[in-house]
Structure formats: C-alpha cells, structure tokens
Design goal:
Blueprint: H1 10-65, E1 70-76, H2 86-100, H3 111-122, E2 126-130, E3 133-145, E4 148-158
Parallel strand pairs: 1-4
Antiparallel strand pairs: 2-3, 3-4
Amino acid sequence: MRVPDFKRYRGSMQAIAFFVCGMIVGAAVYNAMILDQTNRIMTQNYEIKEQLELAEKQLQLNRQVSVIRSIVIFVKPPEGKPALESVVQVELKEALEKDLSILKGRNVYEIGTDAQLVRRLLEGKVYTDIGDKDYGVQIKTMLVADSVLQAWVEAEVRLRK
C-alpha cells in the first residue's frame, strides 16, 4: 500500500487550517463581545439596585415625615387678660400634651377629621388643681408642619363650684 502524496492537498489543507483559525478567532471575538455585554448588564443591574434601595429609604423617610411625631402647645390667656404664670403654663401644656398624645403616629393627611374630634372633646374642658385653680381651655388653632402638631390654646381661670 502506498501513502498518498500530500503536495496535492497542500492548498486545501491551508484553506481548512485558515478556516479553522478563523473559527477560533471568531469564537474568541464573539465570546469577548458576550462577556462585555454581560459585564455592562451586571453593572447596570447593581446601579439600579442601589437606586432602588435609595428610593425605598426615601419612601420610608417620607412615610415617617407624614406622621405626627411631636406636639407643641402654646398657651395664651384670652385677650385683655393678664398673662398666665409660667408654672401654670407648663402644667397646662403637660396636661394638654397628654390629652393630644392620641394624635401621635397618625397620618398628617388624615388629621382633619381627628382635629375636629379633638377640638370638640377639648372644647371647654376644665383642668383642675393647676396652680390651686381650675382652668378652662379652648383650642384656637391647630397646625401640622414638618411632623409637628402645633396647637394654640386659650386658657382662663374657672370658678370652682
């Protein structure tokens, strides 16, 4: 048996080798393109996750901002009456804060109906034994700003019965 002469196949062998090398280089370039695209998608995914976390934190803060967290009360005497003693004002503020504490944690946007209810409940309420006197209170204004409920109240001495 005789071995064939490879000189006859030299051109076709070069063409096949060139084709195989082209396939290898093409596969490498294709793989590099896929890797680059995957890398960009992963980077974009991480950025979007960070944006999502930031948005969720801001939403949590907005939800916390939209609830009443503290109550500030301003006690004033009726017009034309002398100012109340500071001890009496402090005791009245503490008593009113205790009564208004039911509004803490409530949504700011739903405070309208609650404020009317509180106004009716506290209208003409008499606080006894504050500075050895009884004081009647009347809510003049209620304002919610920056999660703080501010209430302006008139207090006057009531006669004991």
